[in-house]
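Please review this one:
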Amino acid sequence: MPRELRNIYFDESELKIALMQFSARQKLIFNVENINDVDVKEGPPISVSLKVFDLETGKVGTVNYSNPEIAAALMGYCMFLKIPLPRSGKKSIAVKDDALILKIKIQ
């Protein structure tokens, strides 16, 4: 039976946009311009911390994302860009050369 493995690479700016859009769906609203720092921890499991400047308080806060939240954000960003994703594929994330990778494996 044929197998397919697809890797979709996201650079830091795309990761910021994906996490911003994901956060907005969770009622946490901020702009990409307000993100001061992105810290990707290779894990396992992979996690991401954003340092975000809050205009209302004038302070910098940290927003943390777990592995499933990052994967959901990347898949949501793909849907936003109209990149087709198979429903049945096994999805995971990885880090390589300063890029986050959404891996999709279909058997």
Observations:
- The two ends are 7 Å apart (CA to CA).
- Residues 5 and 39 are 27 Å apart (CA to CA).
- The longest strand covers residues 47-54.
